[in-house]
Specification:
Rossmann fold; 5-stranded mixed sheet; 410 residues; globular
Length: 410
């Protein structure tokens, strides 16, 4: 909300529209029973927050995590509104999930939890109302269960018209080729736009990645394809470093058999965790948790670019230090928007009964993000501000225009 208010002040956002966007449209809390494998009954808490739908249906992920609550969902839903608006998508912002540790349940229990949660949400979601997607601890299988459950509550004649109630589905269930790599690809597409703007050749540029999950791996994969060199990776298990370069594909193979951890990888040496941001490199890609770069370590960063693959990896004070040093920051609502952009094309192919090939998908994502990057830079120049504020200004101006044209009912 601090970011929102700063951008709203910058563009002199209409006072009435500011009030609308400062509140959420709907906040749904459901409590639903599920029978466990041993026959006992447990009651689970689920949430869905719908922030704003001026531009189109609500859009945003569902996460299964013990920390899921209404406040978390509210913050992330608001973020999704700005992200969709900036990317030029016909969506509003939504977010939600179930407060559970999915590791504590069997696959059959997770299926029943997912299906019962979907049923509890009822008509609050739908392909033209609110379209969830995968998020923390959710995956294509869970999306397939949601789609099947939701469609099964409809009449047989309309069942197939409701399967795109979610995106991020398996390919065989209407999913999009390339959706798995869309967010990481979008990070690199944004970096390419930055390089073009700055006249920088990415060949042999060094980069480090925090987090080697889906986003971190695919960002590394596509950066390496451009000739850049991965030299350090950090995740919850530790920090690894190799000045000569780390093979992202070999590391990915290692992580897949090592419980998702980079620690112990033989192609690099171990570093102390507090040394990660001290590594000399050209580009930093934080793709893990929020608030990782703060006033305590921002001054240690020697890179010329930070591309935010994660949501909110830099706190306010850390960002001030980086901007004062002249470090460029591609903000999260732009840099990691490849995921929601990929979701848009999955939703579109389902609505049109089409089937896009992967090369077309990646081209369309890159085109969308290239336009969003240009608008962000142009907005930052216009208002003489940083790129993050510029990105928010683009999003707010688009939503403001919609309200001004349509008016407010009644």
């Amino acid at each position: 909300m601090k970011q929102f208010n700063h951008a709203a002040d910058t563009i002199k956002l209409d006072a009435g529209i500011r009030k609308i966007l400062s509140a959420t449209n709907s906040e749904i809390s459901v409590h639903f029973p599920v029978k466990m494998d041993d026959g006992t009954i447990e009651v689970f808490n689920g949430y869905r927050v719908q922030h704003n739908n001026a531009l189109g249906p609500y859009k945003g992920g569902l996460r299964f995590h013990p920390a899921v609550d209404i406040d978390t969902a509210r913050a992330l839903a608001i973020w999704m509104t700005w992200k969709s608006a900036l990317a030029g998508l016909p969506y509003g912002g939504g977010k939600g999930g179930v407060s559970i540790d999915p590791q504590a349940y069997s696959k059959s229990e997770l299926e029943r939890i997912t299906r019962r949660f979907t049923y509890a949400l009822g008509e609050n979601i739908g392909p033209d109302v609110d379209i969830p997607a995968p998020d923390v601890n959710t995956n294509p299988q869970i999306m397939a269960w949601i789609a099947d459950t939701f469609a099964s509550t409809k009449s047989p004649s309309t069942r197939m018209l409701n399967l795109h109630v979610v995106t991020g589905k398996p390919i065989g269930s209407g999913g999009l080729k390339g959706r798995d790599r869309a967010t990481g690809f979008g990070v690199v597409a944004s970096i390419k736009s930055w390089a073009k703007l700055k006249g920088v050749d990415l060949l042999n540029k060094t980069f480090i990645v925090q987090g080697f999950g889906n986003v971190g791996y695919w960002a590394s994969h596509f950066m390496t394809e451009l000739g850049a060199k991965l030299i350090a990776v950090q995740d919850a298990s530790g920090t690894i470093y190799n000045e000569s370069g780390i093979d992202s594909e070999q590391l990915h193979d290692y992580v897949s058999i090592n419980n998702g951890d980079v620690y112990g990888y033989e192609g690099a040496k171990q570093l102390e965790n507090n040394s990660f941001f001290k590594v000399e490199c050209d580009i930093v890609i934080p793709a893990a948790l929020s608030n990782q770069i703060t006033s305590e370590n921002a001054d240690e960063i020697k890179a010329s670019l930070i591309a935010e693959g994660a949501n909110g990896p830099i706190d306010t004070e850390g960002e001030k230090i980086l901007l004062a040093k002249g470090v460029d920051i591609i903000p999260d609502i732009l840099c990691n928007a490849g995921g929601v952009t990929g979701s848009y094309y999955e939703w579109l192919q389902n609505k049109r009964s089409e089937n896009y090939n992967i090369d077309t998908v990646l081209e369309m994502i890159e085109e969308k993000l290239s336009v969003a990057f240009s608008k962000t830079v142009e907005s930052a120049r216009k208002y003489k501000t940083d790129w993050r504020t510029g990105a928010y200004c683009v999003a707010l101006e688009r939503i403001q225009q919609t309200y001004q044209e349509r008016g407010v009912f009644p």
